Amino acid sequence: TSPTITYTYSNTTTANDPALLGRGDETVTVTAGWSESADMGLPRPDLIATYGDATTDTLTFVDNDDNKTWNYSLTLPSDPLMDGEIALSSTSSDSAKNSDFIYVNDTTFMLDNTAPTVTNISPSSSSFVKAGEMQLGYTITELTGAVETGTVTYKKVSGPGSDFSVALSGAELSDTTHAQGDITNQNTINSSIVDSTLYNIVFTSVDSAGNTGLDSVTQVKYDISNPRVSLSFSDTLVRGDSTVLMTATFSEILDGGSVPQVMVKYANGAGTVYDDLEYVALNDSSDDASIWYLSINIPSSLNATGNVLINFDSTSVSDFAENQLDSIAFSNVLVIDNTGPTGTLSYLTSAFEADTDRLWGNGGDGVTVTVEWDEHAVISPGPRLVIDYVNSADQIVDHDEYVGNNTVWTYQISSLSSDPLDDGRLSFSVEGTDRANNAMSVYVNNDTFLLDNVAPVVLNVLPGDTSFVNTSLIGYTITDTNGKLESGNIAFKVVGGPGSNFDLNLVDTEIDTGAHAQDSLTNHAVITASIVDSTLYNIVFTSVDSA
Questions:
Q1: Hey, where are the domains in the chain?
Q2: Do domains 4-111 and 117-222 have the same CATH topology?
Q3: What CA–CA distance (Å, rounded) separates 501 from 50?
C-alpha cells in the first residue's frame, strides 16, 4: 500500500497571518507527515516544490522527529511568473519500496507576488463629469480573491478643490466587475468634490499577501457649471439691409457634438415681435471651440425697429459634462433703426440778435441756425446744413466746433443771398445721418425762414395824383414778401397853399399787406386837425417791412 504524506505549513515571516499564503522572500516551514516510516536505507526524502510556471525547487531539509515526520524550509521566490498554488512532491519510498505516494494538502499553499489590478475604471481618463454622476465603476483582478483593502484617492491636478480619499468596503473589494454606481461612502465623494476641479483618480488596493496595486485614471474634470454665453456684435446700431457679425463666446469649450442653434427675433417699438427666424446653426471658430459666429442680415422693414432678441435652443449647447446652456450675457446690444431722425430748426439773425421769433432776413444778414436732432448723429463727418435758394445754387455750411453733444448742431450763415430772385421761404436740409446711417427724414421749421430782398410797395393810393377832393379819407394797397409791415407812415407834404406839412403813423391792421379801402384811419384826427383848405399836398407813404 502506498503511503500517504500530509503537509502542513507555517509562514514564519507572517506568523501565518494570513494562513497558507506568502510572497517573495518570506520563509515557510513545511512538515511532511508520513503515514508509515520512510525507508531509511535510502537517502532521506527530499521535498520538491513545483511553481505556477512549472519550475521546481528543492526545499531545505531542517530535521526529522522520527521516520514519519520530516521538516523542511522554503524561501519563497519573488518572481510573479511563479505565482499560484505550490505543488509539493516527495522522493524516497516506504520500507516496502512503495513510492507512489498519496498526498494530502500538497497544493494548498499559495504564492502571490502579483499586486491586484483595478481596470475598466469609470469615469475614464480625460472625461467630464457633471453633478450627481461622479460614480465609480471598476474591475478588480486579484489572484487570491477579494482584496484586503481598497482606497480611492482624488488627487487634484488643477482647480479650486483639494485631495481627498474614500475607502471601499464589503463587496466593493471583491475581485469582479463593479458596475458604475454609488459606493458605500458616496456621501464623502459628493461632499468633497469641487466644481471646476481636474482630478486624477487613484485606486490603491492591497491583497492579503500585502501586495499593493496602484491604478488610476487621469484628467477627470468635475463640472457642474452650466455653460454661459456672451454675445457681441460687430455693429450695435444698424439699419436695414446691413449685415452684422454676431460673436458668441461660451464660458467653456463645448462638447464636440454641440452645434449651437439660435433664433433671431426683431421687435418693433411697441415691444412685439415683428419677425423671427427658425433656429439656425452658428459657425464654429477654426481655432477655438468656445467661440462661434453668425452673420445676421438685417431686415429693412420699419416694423423691425428696436432691440434684436437672441434666443438659444439650450438643448443644442452642452459642455463635455453634458451641462446645458444656462444664461446669455450681452457685452453690447444690437439695435435696429430703420427710421430717419427728426430735425427741429431755429434761427437767430444778425439784424435781430435778441429776437428768435424773427423768421426772416434780407441779403447780407448773418444767420445762426440751430438743428436739434431727436437721436444721436454721426460726428465724423458731422452733419452739414444745406440752404436751397429759389434761384441761386445751394449754399452748404459746416457746423460749429463739436463740443460733445451730438444732438444739437449750430451753423453760422455769414451772409444770406442778396438776389431778389431768391426771395421767399428758404428750404433748409441736413447732409448727415444718425448712427444707424439713416438720413434725416422729418424736419420741423425747415421752411419757415423768409428771405426778403425787396422793399414793400404802396399802390392804388386814394386820393390819386392831381386830384381834387373834399374828403380826408385815405385808401391804398400794400404789397410785401413778408406780409405785415414793421411800420408805416403817411406824410402830407405842402406843394402850395396856406397849409403846413404833417404826418401820421399807420397802426394795427393798417400795415397789413393787401388792399385797404378808402376810409378813416386810426389816427385820422391828425388829418382833420392838420389839413388846410386850398392847399396842394403830395401824399408820401413810408413803409418798412420786417426785413
A1: 4-111, 117-222, 229-336, 342-451, 457-544
A2: yes
A3: 160
**Topology classification of domain 4-111:** Immunoglobulin-like (2.60.40)
Spell out a b/e string for 24-61, using b for 16 or more CB atoms within 10 Å of the CB, else e: bebebbbbbebeeebbeeeeebebebbbbeeeebebee
3-class state of residue 422 by DSSP: helix
| φ, ψ for residue 384, nearest 5 deg | -110, 155
CA distance 508 to 256: 87
Architecture of the domain delimited by 342-451: Sandwich (2.60)
d(CA 158, CA 197): 6
Hunting for cell 507527515 — which residue is that? 33
Q: Which CATH class is domain 117-222?
A: mainly beta
| Alpha carbon separation from 479 to 298, 447, 465, 525, 543 (Å, rounded) | 55, 21, 19, 26, 10
Tell the CATH topology of 229-336. Immunoglobulin-like (2.60.40)
The whole-angstrom separation of Cα 368 and Cα 18 is 108
Strands (E), 234-269: 237-238, 243-250, 261-267
Q: Within a 10 A sphere around the Cβ of 112, how many other Cβ atoms?
A: 22
- pLDDT tens for the 547 residues of the chain, in order: 889 999 999 999 999 999 999 999 999 999 999 999 999 878 899 999 999 999 999 999 999 988 999 999 999 999 999 999 999 999 999 988 999 999 999 999 999 999 999 999 999 999 999 998 899 999 999 999 999 999 999 999 999 999 999 999 999 999 999 999 999 999 999 999 999 999 999 999 999 999 999 999 999 998 988 999 999 999 999 998 899 999 999 998 888 888 899 888 887 655 555 555 577 888 887 667 789 999 998 888 887 888 888 888 888 998 888 889 988 877 778 999 999 999 999 999 876 665 556 788 888 989 999 999 999 999 999 999 999 999 999 999 999 999 999 999 999 999 999 999 999 899 999 999 999 999 999 999 999 998 988 888 999 999 999 988 888 899 999 998 777 888 999 999 999 999 999 999 999 999 999 999 998 899 999 999 999 999 999 999 999 887 7
Amino acid occupying residue 286: S
Q: Report the chain's terminal Cα–Cα distance, integer Å.
A: 153
Model confidence, pTM: 0.63
R_g of the chain computed on alpha carbons? 56
